[in-house]
Amino acid sequence: MENTVTLPQSPQTIISTAINERLDYEEWALAQIDAGLADIKAGRVYSRDEAYQMLGMVKHERKKAA
After folding, report:
1. pLDDT per residue over 25-66, tens digit each?
2. CA–CA separation, 36 vs 30, rounded Å?
3. Cα–Cα distance between 48 and 36 in angstroms, integer?
4. Which of 4, 37, 50, 55 could form a cystine bridge with 46, CB 3.0-4.6 A?
């Protein structure tokens, strides 16, 4: 009994696709970071308390270590 796997594409195509998708993700992530930094520089930020309030969440205080 043979244990073979048939790939829908060549290994080179699969690897190339994976690399391209990873690079696309890296470009997207860097663009999001740049956009966030631009927001900070422009003053478009909220404090943690403001964010909790906008989301209707209750802030839980951290317990201090004994």
Report:
1. 999 999 999 999 999 999 999 999 999 999 998 777 777 776
2. 10
3. 16
4. 50
Residue 38 near residue 28, CB atoms below 8 Å: no
| Amino acid (1-letter code) at residue 40 | I
Global confidence as pTM: 0.63
pLDDT of residue 7: 86
User: What are the residue boundaries of the structural domains of the chain, listed by start?
Assistant: 11-54
Q: Is the dihedral of CA 23, 28, 31, 33 positive or negative?
A: negative
